[in-house]
What we know:
Layout: H1 5-14, E1 18-22, E2 28-31, E3 34-37, H2 45-53, H3 58-67, E4 69-76, E5 80-89, E6 92-101, H4 107-110, H5 115-120, E7 125-130, H6 137-151, E8 155-160, E9 173-178, H7 186-193, E10 200-203, H8 209-220, E11 224-229, H9 234-243, H10 250-260, E12 261-271, E13 278-286, H11 289-296, H12 303-308, H13 318-327, H14 333-339, H15 343-353
Parallel strand pairs: 7-11, 7-12, 8-9, 8-10, 10-11
Antiparallel strand pairs: 1-2, 1-6, 2-3, 4-5, 5-6, 12-13
Helix pairs in contact: 7-8, 9-10, 10-11, 13-15, 14-15
Amino acid sequence: MAKIDAFFKLMHDQGASDLHLVSGSQPILRLRGEMERVKFDPLENDSLKAMLYEIAPEDKIKVFEETGDIDFAYEIPGLARYRANFFVQKWGVGAVFREIPSEILTVDQLGLPPICKKLAMLQKGMVLVTGPTGSGKSTTLAAIIDHCNKNRKDHILTVEDPIEFVHKSKGCIVNHREVGLHTKTFGSALRGALREDPDIILVGEMRDLETIQLALEAASTGHLVFGTLHTQSATKTIDRIIDVFPANQQAQIRTTVSEGLKAVVAQSLFKRIDKKGRCAALEILVCTAAAANLIREGKTPQMQSVIQTGKKLGMQTLEDAIIGLLQKKWISPEEAFDKAVDKNRIDAELKKLFPEWTTPPEF
Protein backbone atom coordinates (compact mmCIF):
# COMPACT_ATOMS: atom_id res chain seq x y z
CA MET A 1 0.00 0.00 0.00
CA ALA A 2 1.41 3.37 -1.04
CA LYS A 3 1.81 5.98 1.69
CA ILE A 4 -0.47 8.41 -0.17
CA ASP A 5 -3.35 5.89 -0.17
CA ALA A 6 -4.29 6.99 3.37
CA PHE A 7 -5.18 10.43 1.97
CA PHE A 8 -7.29 8.82 -0.75
CA LYS A 9 -9.18 6.76 1.83
CA LEU A 10 -9.82 9.93 3.88
CA MET A 11 -10.97 11.69 0.72
CA HIS A 12 -13.31 8.83 -0.15
CA ASP A 13 -14.72 8.55 3.39
CA GLN A 14 -15.39 12.30 3.56
CA GLY A 15 -17.07 12.34 0.14
CA ALA A 16 -14.60 14.87 -1.28
CA SER A 17 -14.33 15.43 -5.02
CA ASP A 18 -10.71 16.61 -5.03
CA LEU A 19 -7.53 16.32 -2.96
CA HIS A 20 -4.85 19.04 -3.08
CA LEU A 21 -1.31 18.21 -1.90
CA VAL A 22 1.03 21.18 -2.16
CA SER A 23 4.51 21.79 -0.70
CA GLY A 24 4.35 24.19 2.22
CA SER A 25 0.63 23.64 2.88
CA GLN A 26 -1.60 21.24 4.77
CA PRO A 27 -3.53 18.75 2.61
CA ILE A 28 -6.82 20.24 1.40
CA LEU A 29 -10.07 18.51 0.39
CA ARG A 30 -12.78 19.98 -1.82
CA LEU A 31 -16.03 19.10 -0.08
CA ARG A 32 -19.27 20.01 -1.87
CA GLY A 33 -17.42 22.67 -3.81
CA GLU A 34 -15.59 24.27 -0.89
CA MET A 35 -11.94 23.88 0.16
CA GLU A 36 -11.33 22.47 3.65
CA ARG A 37 -7.95 21.91 5.29
CA VAL A 38 -7.05 18.53 6.77
CA LYS A 39 -5.63 18.51 10.30
CA PHE A 40 -2.13 17.49 9.26
CA ASP A 41 1.33 19.04 9.30
CA PRO A 42 2.30 21.19 6.29
CA LEU A 43 3.83 19.03 3.58
CA GLU A 44 7.57 19.32 2.92
CA ASN A 45 8.75 19.31 -0.68
CA ASP A 46 11.07 16.29 -0.50
CA SER A 47 8.68 14.05 1.43
CA LEU A 48 5.75 15.04 -0.81
CA LYS A 49 7.78 14.37 -3.96
CA ALA A 50 8.72 10.90 -2.63
CA MET A 51 5.06 10.21 -1.85
CA LEU A 52 3.94 11.30 -5.32
CA TYR A 53 6.69 9.44 -7.16
CA GLU A 54 5.70 6.21 -5.37
CA ILE A 55 2.46 6.03 -7.41
CA ALA A 56 3.58 7.62 -10.71
CA PRO A 57 4.72 5.48 -13.67
CA GLU A 58 8.43 5.91 -14.49
CA ASP A 59 7.77 7.41 -17.92
CA LYS A 60 5.44 9.98 -16.35
CA ILE A 61 8.09 10.95 -13.77
CA LYS A 62 10.56 11.56 -16.59
CA VAL A 63 8.09 13.79 -18.45
CA PHE A 64 7.26 15.64 -15.21
CA GLU A 65 10.92 16.41 -14.51
CA GLU A 66 11.34 17.68 -18.06
CA THR A 67 8.15 19.75 -18.35
CA GLY A 68 6.85 20.44 -14.84
CA ASP A 69 3.36 19.00 -15.59
CA ILE A 70 1.85 15.53 -16.02
CA ASP A 71 -1.58 13.89 -16.01
CA PHE A 72 -2.30 10.22 -15.38
CA ALA A 73 -4.80 7.92 -13.67
CA TYR A 74 -4.22 6.01 -10.45
CA GLU A 75 -6.47 3.24 -9.16
CA ILE A 76 -6.96 1.66 -5.74
CA PRO A 77 -8.85 -1.62 -6.34
CA GLY A 78 -12.09 -1.72 -4.40
CA LEU A 79 -12.00 2.01 -3.64
CA ALA A 80 -11.87 4.29 -6.71
CA ARG A 81 -9.84 5.67 -9.59
CA TYR A 82 -8.15 9.05 -9.40
CA ARG A 83 -7.22 11.52 -12.12
CA ALA A 84 -3.85 12.91 -11.07
CA ASN A 85 -2.12 16.12 -12.07
CA PHE A 86 1.40 16.91 -10.84
CA PHE A 87 2.82 20.41 -11.21
CA VAL A 88 5.67 22.59 -9.98
CA GLN A 89 4.92 25.82 -8.10
CA LYS A 90 6.86 28.46 -6.15
CA TRP A 91 7.31 26.38 -3.00
CA GLY A 92 8.01 23.04 -4.71
CA VAL A 93 5.88 20.23 -6.14
CA GLY A 94 2.09 20.08 -5.99
CA ALA A 95 -0.61 17.65 -7.03
CA VAL A 96 -4.38 17.58 -7.43
CA PHE A 97 -6.40 14.37 -7.51
CA ARG A 98 -10.01 14.07 -8.70
CA GLU A 99 -11.91 10.99 -7.52
CA ILE A 100 -13.62 8.98 -10.24
CA PRO A 101 -16.13 6.59 -8.63
CA SER A 102 -15.73 2.92 -9.51
CA GLU A 103 -19.53 2.65 -9.74
CA ILE A 104 -21.03 4.44 -12.74
CA LEU A 105 -24.31 6.07 -11.78
CA THR A 106 -27.18 5.73 -14.24
CA VAL A 107 -29.12 8.55 -15.90
CA ASP A 108 -31.97 7.91 -13.46
CA GLN A 109 -29.72 7.84 -10.38
CA LEU A 110 -28.23 11.20 -11.36
CA GLY A 111 -31.69 12.67 -11.93
CA LEU A 112 -30.85 13.64 -15.50
CA PRO A 113 -33.69 14.53 -17.91
CA PRO A 114 -35.14 11.58 -19.91
CA ILE A 115 -33.80 13.06 -23.16
CA CYS A 116 -30.30 11.95 -22.10
CA LYS A 117 -31.43 8.35 -22.76
CA LYS A 118 -32.66 9.36 -26.23
CA LEU A 119 -29.29 10.96 -26.99
CA ALA A 120 -27.61 7.66 -26.09
CA MET A 121 -29.70 5.87 -28.75
CA LEU A 122 -28.91 8.21 -31.68
CA GLN A 123 -27.38 6.49 -34.70
CA LYS A 124 -25.03 9.26 -35.80
CA GLY A 125 -24.04 12.87 -35.22
CA MET A 126 -22.35 14.80 -32.42
CA VAL A 127 -23.54 15.31 -28.84
CA LEU A 128 -21.58 17.72 -26.64
CA VAL A 129 -21.62 17.94 -22.85
CA THR A 130 -20.23 21.28 -21.72
CA GLY A 131 -19.63 23.33 -18.61
CA PRO A 132 -16.89 24.83 -16.48
CA THR A 133 -14.20 22.69 -14.86
CA GLY A 134 -15.64 20.56 -12.07
CA SER A 135 -19.23 20.82 -13.27
CA GLY A 136 -19.74 17.05 -13.60
CA LYS A 137 -19.38 16.70 -17.38
CA SER A 138 -17.52 13.38 -17.10
CA THR A 139 -20.15 11.95 -14.73
CA THR A 140 -23.01 12.89 -17.07
CA LEU A 141 -21.20 11.48 -20.11
CA ALA A 142 -20.39 8.28 -18.23
CA ALA A 143 -24.11 7.79 -17.48
CA ILE A 144 -25.02 8.32 -21.15
CA ILE A 145 -22.28 5.92 -22.34
CA ASP A 146 -23.43 3.40 -19.73
CA HIS A 147 -26.96 3.59 -21.20
CA CYS A 148 -25.46 2.93 -24.67
CA ASN A 149 -23.48 0.00 -23.27
CA LYS A 150 -26.55 -1.62 -21.69
CA ASN A 151 -29.05 -1.02 -24.49
CA ARG A 152 -27.12 -1.28 -27.76
CA LYS A 153 -24.96 -3.84 -29.54
CA ASP A 154 -22.19 -1.64 -30.90
CA HIS A 155 -18.49 -0.83 -30.62
CA ILE A 156 -17.75 2.03 -28.21
CA LEU A 157 -14.29 3.59 -28.44
CA THR A 158 -13.16 6.19 -25.89
CA VAL A 159 -10.18 8.52 -26.27
CA GLU A 160 -9.26 10.27 -23.01
CA ASP A 161 -6.38 11.97 -21.20
CA PRO A 162 -6.33 10.12 -18.84
CA ILE A 163 -8.98 7.35 -18.85
CA GLU A 164 -11.57 8.27 -16.23
CA PHE A 165 -14.67 6.07 -15.89
CA VAL A 166 -13.98 2.47 -16.89
CA HIS A 167 -16.89 0.76 -18.70
CA LYS A 168 -16.96 -3.03 -18.78
CA SER A 169 -18.34 -4.44 -22.02
CA LYS A 170 -22.04 -5.33 -21.67
CA GLY A 171 -24.27 -5.15 -24.72
CA CYS A 172 -21.47 -3.25 -26.46
CA ILE A 173 -17.75 -3.86 -26.87
CA VAL A 174 -15.93 -1.02 -25.09
CA ASN A 175 -12.30 -0.09 -25.82
CA HIS A 176 -10.55 2.63 -23.83
CA ARG A 177 -7.51 4.47 -25.24
CA GLU A 178 -5.41 6.89 -23.18
CA VAL A 179 -3.52 9.73 -24.81
CA GLY A 180 0.18 9.43 -24.00
CA LEU A 181 -0.10 5.76 -23.06
CA HIS A 182 -1.96 4.03 -25.92
CA THR A 183 -1.78 6.80 -28.54
CA LYS A 184 0.27 9.97 -28.99
CA THR A 185 -2.48 12.58 -29.39
CA PHE A 186 -6.27 12.95 -29.61
CA GLY A 187 -5.78 13.63 -33.31
CA SER A 188 -3.83 10.45 -34.03
CA ALA A 189 -6.34 8.40 -32.02
CA LEU A 190 -9.28 9.86 -33.96
CA ARG A 191 -7.59 9.28 -37.31
CA GLY A 192 -7.01 5.67 -36.27
CA ALA A 193 -10.54 5.35 -34.90
CA LEU A 194 -12.09 5.67 -38.34
CA ARG A 195 -10.31 2.41 -39.27
CA GLU A 196 -11.28 0.59 -36.07
CA ASP A 197 -14.95 0.05 -36.90
CA PRO A 198 -16.46 2.09 -34.05
CA ASP A 199 -20.14 2.97 -33.84
CA ILE A 200 -19.76 5.35 -30.90
CA ILE A 201 -16.71 7.50 -30.16
CA LEU A 202 -16.15 9.38 -26.90
CA VAL A 203 -13.62 12.23 -27.12
CA GLY A 204 -12.55 13.15 -23.59
CA GLU A 205 -11.84 16.77 -24.44
CA MET A 206 -12.17 18.70 -27.71
CA ARG A 207 -9.35 21.10 -27.02
CA ASP A 208 -7.87 22.09 -30.40
CA LEU A 209 -8.59 22.57 -34.10
CA GLU A 210 -7.39 19.12 -35.19
CA THR A 211 -9.45 17.26 -32.58
CA ILE A 212 -12.62 19.25 -33.33
CA GLN A 213 -12.14 18.84 -37.09
CA LEU A 214 -11.66 15.07 -36.85
CA ALA A 215 -14.60 14.71 -34.44
CA LEU A 216 -16.85 16.60 -36.87
CA GLU A 217 -15.60 14.39 -39.70
CA ALA A 218 -16.42 11.25 -37.70
CA ALA A 219 -19.90 12.59 -36.90
CA SER A 220 -20.55 13.40 -40.57
CA THR A 221 -19.45 9.94 -41.74
CA GLY A 222 -22.08 7.99 -39.81
CA HIS A 223 -20.61 7.72 -36.29
CA LEU A 224 -22.13 8.88 -33.02
CA VAL A 225 -19.58 11.16 -31.34
CA PHE A 226 -19.73 12.36 -27.74
CA GLY A 227 -17.36 15.08 -26.54
CA THR A 228 -16.80 17.76 -23.92
CA LEU A 229 -15.98 21.45 -24.09
CA HIS A 230 -15.32 24.03 -21.37
CA THR A 231 -18.14 26.36 -22.38
CA GLN A 232 -21.06 27.58 -20.26
CA SER A 233 -24.00 27.55 -22.68
CA ALA A 234 -25.23 25.98 -25.91
CA THR A 235 -24.75 29.25 -27.81
CA LYS A 236 -21.16 29.68 -26.61
CA THR A 237 -20.44 26.04 -27.45
CA ILE A 238 -21.43 26.49 -31.09
CA ASP A 239 -19.49 29.77 -31.35
CA ARG A 240 -16.42 28.15 -29.77
CA ILE A 241 -16.40 25.29 -32.31
CA ILE A 242 -16.70 27.64 -35.27
CA ASP A 243 -14.24 30.23 -33.95
CA VAL A 244 -11.50 27.59 -33.68
CA PHE A 245 -11.35 27.46 -37.49
CA PRO A 246 -9.67 30.09 -39.70
CA ALA A 247 -12.04 32.85 -40.91
CA ASN A 248 -11.99 31.63 -44.52
CA GLN A 249 -13.30 28.19 -43.44
CA GLN A 250 -16.00 29.29 -41.02
CA ALA A 251 -18.87 29.48 -43.51
CA GLN A 252 -18.21 25.89 -44.57
CA ILE A 253 -17.83 24.74 -40.95
CA ARG A 254 -21.16 26.35 -40.02
CA THR A 255 -22.80 24.09 -42.59
CA THR A 256 -20.92 21.04 -41.30
CA VAL A 257 -21.89 21.80 -37.68
CA SER A 258 -25.52 22.47 -38.62
CA GLU A 259 -25.73 19.05 -40.25
CA GLY A 260 -23.71 17.05 -37.70
CA LEU A 261 -24.53 18.53 -34.30
CA LYS A 262 -27.47 16.76 -32.64
CA ALA A 263 -27.52 18.22 -29.13
CA VAL A 264 -25.66 20.30 -26.56
CA VAL A 265 -26.02 19.67 -22.84
CA ALA A 266 -24.52 22.55 -20.83
CA GLN A 267 -24.45 22.01 -17.09
CA SER A 268 -23.64 23.80 -13.86
CA LEU A 269 -23.27 22.25 -10.41
CA PHE A 270 -24.99 23.62 -7.32
CA LYS A 271 -24.47 22.94 -3.64
CA ARG A 272 -27.57 21.38 -2.10
CA ILE A 273 -29.01 23.06 0.99
CA ASP A 274 -31.48 20.31 1.91
CA LYS A 275 -28.80 17.65 2.41
CA LYS A 276 -25.12 16.96 1.77
CA GLY A 277 -24.18 16.80 -1.89
CA ARG A 278 -24.54 18.71 -5.12
CA CYS A 279 -26.99 18.73 -8.01
CA ALA A 280 -26.81 19.78 -11.65
CA ALA A 281 -28.85 22.27 -13.63
CA LEU A 282 -28.81 21.48 -17.35
CA GLU A 283 -29.43 23.65 -20.38
CA ILE A 284 -30.39 21.38 -23.28
CA LEU A 285 -30.40 22.27 -26.96
CA VAL A 286 -31.68 19.76 -29.51
CA CYS A 287 -30.61 20.69 -33.03
CA THR A 288 -33.89 20.97 -34.89
CA ALA A 289 -34.23 22.39 -38.41
CA ALA A 290 -34.74 25.84 -36.87
CA ALA A 291 -31.55 25.53 -34.80
CA ALA A 292 -29.60 24.26 -37.83
CA ASN A 293 -30.72 27.31 -39.85
CA LEU A 294 -29.50 29.67 -37.14
CA ILE A 295 -26.12 27.92 -37.06
CA ARG A 296 -25.76 28.12 -40.87
CA GLU A 297 -26.73 31.79 -40.92
CA GLY A 298 -24.47 32.76 -38.02
CA LYS A 299 -27.41 33.79 -35.83
CA THR A 300 -26.53 31.77 -32.72
CA PRO A 301 -27.58 34.59 -30.31
CA GLN A 302 -31.17 33.76 -31.34
CA MET A 303 -30.71 30.15 -30.17
CA GLN A 304 -32.30 30.87 -26.78
CA SER A 305 -35.69 31.35 -28.45
CA VAL A 306 -35.37 27.90 -30.07
CA ILE A 307 -34.62 26.36 -26.66
CA GLN A 308 -37.53 28.20 -25.01
CA THR A 309 -40.02 26.95 -27.61
CA GLY A 310 -38.65 23.39 -27.74
CA LYS A 311 -39.82 22.03 -24.38
CA LYS A 312 -41.85 19.26 -26.03
CA LEU A 313 -38.62 17.99 -27.61
CA GLY A 314 -36.83 17.89 -24.25
CA MET A 315 -35.14 21.27 -24.50
CA GLN A 316 -34.78 23.54 -21.50
CA THR A 317 -32.98 26.75 -20.63
CA LEU A 318 -30.55 26.94 -17.74
CA GLU A 319 -33.02 29.25 -15.98
CA ASP A 320 -35.83 26.65 -16.34
CA ALA A 321 -33.57 24.09 -14.66
CA ILE A 322 -32.53 26.50 -11.89
CA ILE A 323 -36.16 27.44 -11.17
CA GLY A 324 -37.01 23.73 -10.91
CA LEU A 325 -34.27 23.28 -8.28
CA LEU A 326 -35.43 26.38 -6.40
CA GLN A 327 -39.01 25.11 -6.30
CA LYS A 328 -37.75 21.85 -4.78
CA LYS A 329 -35.81 23.94 -2.23
CA TRP A 330 -32.60 22.12 -3.17
CA ILE A 331 -30.41 25.18 -3.78
CA SER A 332 -29.91 28.61 -2.24
CA PRO A 333 -31.37 31.78 -3.82
CA GLU A 334 -27.91 33.39 -3.73
CA GLU A 335 -26.20 30.64 -5.74
CA ALA A 336 -29.15 30.47 -8.15
CA PHE A 337 -28.82 34.18 -8.89
CA ASP A 338 -25.02 34.01 -9.10
CA LYS A 339 -24.92 31.18 -11.65
CA ALA A 340 -27.89 32.24 -13.80
CA VAL A 341 -27.27 33.76 -17.22
CA ASP A 342 -30.63 35.57 -17.46
CA LYS A 343 -30.44 37.21 -14.04
CA ASN A 344 -33.55 39.34 -14.63
CA ARG A 345 -35.70 36.23 -14.99
CA ILE A 346 -34.21 34.52 -11.94
CA ASP A 347 -34.51 37.72 -9.91
CA ALA A 348 -38.24 37.94 -10.73
CA GLU A 349 -38.74 34.27 -9.85
CA LEU A 350 -36.84 34.63 -6.57
CA LYS A 351 -39.13 37.49 -5.55
CA LYS A 352 -42.13 35.18 -6.04
CA LEU A 353 -40.63 32.19 -4.23
CA PHE A 354 -38.82 34.06 -1.47
CA PRO A 355 -40.63 37.27 -0.35
CA GLU A 356 -37.55 38.21 1.71
CA TRP A 357 -35.26 38.14 -1.37
CA THR A 358 -33.61 41.44 -2.28
CA THR A 359 -31.78 42.02 -5.53
CA PRO A 360 -28.01 42.44 -4.97
CA PRO A 361 -27.11 46.16 -5.21
CA GLU A 362 -24.28 45.53 -7.70
CA PHE A 363 -26.71 43.96 -10.20
